[in-house]
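Re: your question from the hallway

Yes, I did run it. Sequences:
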Amino acid sequence: MGCRAMSAYRALLGAELRIFVRDKASLAFTFLFPLLFILIFGALMGGIGDAEDSRIGLAVAPNEEGRQLEQIVSETGRLSVHSHPDRTALEAALETGDVDFGAVWDGDRLTFLYDARRTQENHTFEEVARGIAARFNLLLQGLAPIVSTRVESVGGRGATGWLNLVVPGILAFSTLSAGLFAVSGHITGMKQRKLLDRMIVTPMPRVALLAAVISVRLAVVYVSTLITLGVAIAVFRLDFDVDWLRYSLFVPAGTVGMMGFGTVIALVVRQPSSAGNIANAISMIMMFVSGIYFPIEIMPAFLRGISRAMPLTYMADALRYATGVIDMSDTRFWWTTGILFGAGVAVLPLLARYVVRADRR
Amino acid sequence: MSGITAVARTYLVTNLRERITLFWFLVFPLFLLTILTLIFGGLGSDLETTFAVGLVNSARANGGPTDFSSMVERAFVHLSSSDSPDRRPLFRLHRPADGEDPRAFLDREKDAVRIGDRALLIEIPAGFNEALLASVGGAGPPAAIAISVSGGRISSEIARSIADQVIAGVNERILTVVGRFDPSQALTVESARVGSNGRDFLYVDFLLPGVVLMAFFTAGLFGVPGTILFGRERKILKRYWVTPLETRRFLAGFSLGHLALCATQFVALYLLGRFAFGARVALLSPLSLAFLALAASVFLAFGFLISSLARTANAAMAIANILNLPMMFLGGLFFPIGELPAILRAVMLANPVTYLADGLRTALGVTTPMVPCAATIAVPVAWAVVCVVVAARRLQWGAEQ
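Structure:
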């Protein structure tokens, strides 16, 4: 950049920073929302997948077999066991939510009871129940399992919970939003309010404006993801093993890549005011199908196919890798980072030429 | 009367004609109902996933009577085939090629598990048959099968739970073969659903009322301030005031138009839920419809409140955006709310969405009541009254910004 461009850049950098700080909605979306998502989802769904922490109600015949069943249940995971005199009492406890699921042993058959209204959780309780039934089945004939498993965790942190997977996903979504809305939101907004028209008639080089917008967004999204990560660690005692080099390279690369995507939207959608709305709709759809909150593995096959076409899926996986939650090949990580950065940089000339320009009269 | 219906029609047509409001008020709720039902509706049923699994049997003993390792191996191989062309096999097995060094295969497959290319690596170790015989004879612990999982990957966890079920079956089969387990005396296991008259609800039965409320909520939160404040800023409202239409008649028409928008949302969502996903909840029952009417009215009042608090349409959209997701998620629209920290619990208890969602679902019998029955009506009504009083004092219909 020449001297004039540098001074324009410095002036625009200050202006961009002030615009960002004064825009309460942008501040909320960038800093507050990721935190809210972490706090709400962490609190609401932190126990997902921990069916072995559930409360099981037991109504068993008062004999040796009943005691054996109680013993098996008490040795299963971290189940908290609640005894009930009979099936009726157990059903009442299930209806009022005092227990999560129940087992009845009448001396002849083992019946597991589930609350019909807990459609989302029953399949995990059923899995625990299958394990209990398998052991009880052998024990009734005086037998114990003769084959067991020895599980070794390779890669990642091993004992990660659902929230460990979600946090990097939210960081990826923040990165996506920041890049996408920097163009299809901020720049198109400037265009809509005729601010660009006024700036472009000054000697300011377009590249200085773009550099200022990119610099502010990169800095803001990096700080925002760090705050989100820090809060997740502090509030929910989550354990991450952050590779700072990869993290610090991926977040800017992802932001630049998504600015390229935002440029494509701004070029396709001719109405500047619509570009932000379209970007908002696309990001919301991506959030649901890219495995940010719900694992891709539980989705139907065709949704998994759609998920594989979404950049956010790869961004989330790359950030899970950079935060030590999952392992992946280094080559795959660098390809993801390189493609995002390269695509973003490749589209920048289009952004400078066709988006950052005066509105047609 | 014609003035009222004209205002109502204008409100409805404007919201359905604008692409962005059409998307958020109608298309997005339909998308959300579809996507969440597709994702969570099939939980626990047959998986459509095929997991890539490495399998190596280092204990094979050429099919002799004590070659239990082959029995275990066959149990996993069985999972790599499908009984019907419509069902995918659960496992796609990767096994060492003929003459391949098992150690090299294990190292390579373990690395594949680490980077997520395999969900599991199952190794039946050398000495398995001997260990198993010792265990059958009571002279040793259970014979162990080594399973490598990829830390943090859900696919690994699901594949491992499938492998656990296979091992449970293998235990029974081997004990039967050695004459220790009598299958005719096997335990009878049953399962039953209780609550809601024993009916087994689908996830869509839980979700549909939540998405209908979300659609109403979004329409109230964004649609009402958007129409009022953009109308004020673009001087559209000013044109109304020069006609003989009184403010109260305008308000009546506006409210009627909003309720018509909610009715349109309800019909579209109900039809999708009922006929595409088989929802069986009685959303058309009088009690349910009364709750939905209450919800639409409360969210309309909430929209008036935001219109009165914001000075510009953009500020109103910012306020609505900030309130939107926290109120929806902390109202239990999509997922049941369990234990929450004190601060979030306080927000949840102050949130009218919580009471409307709980009241509607309780009326439909798809949830255990979380708050007292009277509160599901009293709290939303109190919110509506406060919103209307504040809006009546603050909202400036004619002020140009």
